[in-house]
Amino acid sequence: MRLALKLLLFAPLALLVVGVNYAVDPGNAFGSEQRERRLATRLLAGRDVPASFALDELRLQRDLAEGRREAPEILVLGSSRAMMVGSAAFPGRAVVNASVSSASLEDAIALFELYDEHGLRPRTLLLGIDPWALNGSTRNPSSSLDPELQAGLRRLGRAAPAAYGALPALGGGRLARWLRLLSPSYFQASLAVWLRGGRPEREDPAREPAPARGAAEDPAVLHPDGSRTWAPRLDDTPVEAARAYAATQGASGLSFLKIPPDPDRVALLGAFVDHVGTLGVRVVIWLAPYHPAAYANLVAGHRAAAVMEGERAVRALAQPRHLVVLGSYDPAASGAREEDIADHHHLRWRQGNALIARLWVAAGL
User: Fold this and answer.
1) What 8-state DSSP symbol labels residue 139?
2) Cα separations (Å) of 8 from 1, 15, 16, 19?
3) CA distances (Å), origin 344, targets 105, 245, 259, 331, 359
4) Percentage of the chain surpassing pLDDT 70?
5) Helix, strand or coil for residue 32?
6) pLDDT tens string 153-209
7) By the 8 A CB rule, do 76 and 98 touch?
8) Phi-psi region of 155 (alpha: psi -120 to 50; beta: other; left: phi over 0)
9) Do 161 and 268 form a contact (C-beta atoms < 8 A)?
10) DSSP letter string, 201-233
C-alpha cells in the first residue's frame, strides 16, 4: 500500500515529463519522418535548405547516406562545433559533413558504421572530439541509428552497448521512439526549447519550408555537403556580445565540462580510431577551440577538468598512433582569434573553415 502511494506521488511528475516531451518534441521524434526525408531530397539535389534543430538529426543523416552515390574523400564527424566545416575548407575535394548536435562517441561510431555499410567509406575521417565525448555526459537525443551503433560497437569488441552514453541502447524502432517520452535527457532538451520560445512549428510535409520566425528560432542553412551556416543571430553576433556571453558561460562553469575523462571511454575512442585505421582510412582529430573569455574563466575557476584533462588524453592517445591532432581547446594554441568565435564554443562559418584550412596545410595534409 505504501509503495502504491509513493508511486502515485511521482505520477504527476511523470505525466509532466511525458507531456512536455510530446508537446515540444525538439528532435521531431513523434512527428512525421517526411520532414527529414524532404530535407534530404533537397540537399541531395544540390540545394541549400533552411532548417532549425527541430528534427531528428540522425534520421536525416540516415536519409542522406541512403541517397548518396559516391564516397566522400573527407568525412567530417563531430558535434555542432564541427558543423561549419565543409568544402570551403578543402577546395576541390569531395567533403561530407555528417555531424550532429551534442555528438558523443556513440554517435560517431554509429555514423561511421552507417557510411561504411552504404559503401561510402572515406579516405580521411576528420573526427571532432569534444570534452563531453570522453566523460559520457551528453549525447544526441535520437536513437534512429541504434542498429548501426550496436553493429559498430560489436566490431570494437564492445558487446554491451547499453553501457555507453547518456541514453541506453533501446533496440531501435517504435519502442525506442516512444520510450523517449520518459527520457530525462530529452526532457532537458524539451525544456531548453520551450524556454527559448516554445514548441517548434510543425511543418506540413507537402509545403516548402519557411524560415522560422523569431530570433530564438532563426534556422541554420544546411548545405549540400552537410555543413551548416549558422543563423544570423549566431554567425553575425558582434564581437563584444560574443565576449560577454562567453565570459558568462565560462564563469558559470558548464557542468559537463567539470567531469574528467572516463578511462573506459578514452579506450573506446582508441578502439574506434584503430578500427577505422585498419580499414585504410586516415584519421585526423579536430579539437575545436573555446572562446578566449570562456576558456580563461573555466581555467581560472578550476571548472575545466573535461577540457584540460580531455585534451591531454586525446594527445596521449594520438601520439603512439601517429595521428594528426588539429587545433586545441585552448584558442591561443589553436591560432583562433576572438572574432572567429560566435559564442562560448562555436566558430563562425567563414572563419572556422579558414582556420581548418590553415591548420590542415600546416600539418602537411
Assistant:
1) -
2) 11, 11, 13, 17
3) 22, 7, 18, 11, 21
4) 73
5) coil
6) 999 988 654 454 434 434 444 555 555 665 555 655 555 545 444 444 444 333 333
7) yes
8) alpha
9) no
10) PPPPTTS---PPSSGGGPPEEE-TTS-EEPPHH
Residue 319 CA to chain centroid, in angstroms? 25
The residues near 207 (Cβ < 8 Å, ≥ 6 apart) are none
For residue 67, the surrounding DSSP H or E stretch is: helix 57-67
Q: Which three cell numbers stand for residue 133?
A: 565525448
* C-beta separation of 186 from 141 below 8 A: yes
SS3 112: helix
**Which pairing describes strands 220-222 and 95-97: parallel, antiparallel, or unpaired?**
unpaired
Helix or strand run (H / E) with residue 317? helix 305-321
Cβ neighbours around 136 below 10 Å, total: 21
SS3 call for 159? coil
What is the reported pLDDT for 69? 92
Q: Which of 242, 239, 275, 253 is nearest to 131 (CA)?
A: 253
User: Which pTM was predicted?
Assistant: 0.81
- Sheet strand arrangement including 74-77: 95-97, 74-77, 124-128, 282-287, 324-327
- Count the Cβ atoms, other than its own, within 10 Å of residue 86: 23
H or E element at residue 51: strand 49-51
Check: CB of residue 146 under 8 Å from CB of residue 179. Answer: no
DSSP for 320-331, written as a single string: HHT-EEEE-SSH
Report pLDDT digits (tens) over 74-98. Answer: 999 999 999 999 999 999 999 999 9
- The per-type count for the chain, helices as H runs and strands as E runs, is 14, 8
Please return the burial class of 28, using the count of CB atoms within 10 Å of its CB with bins 0-12, 13-18 and 19+. Answer: buried
Handedness of CA 262, 266, 268, 269 (dihedral sign): positive
* Cell numbers placing 268: 573506446
Strand partners for 232: none
CA 220 centroid distance within chain: 14
CB atoms within 10 A of CB 54: 21
Q: What are the extents of the domains in the chain?
A: 26-198+206-362
Task: Give the list of residues 6+ apart from residue 330 with CB closer than 8 angstroms, or none.
Answer: 289, 290, 295, 311
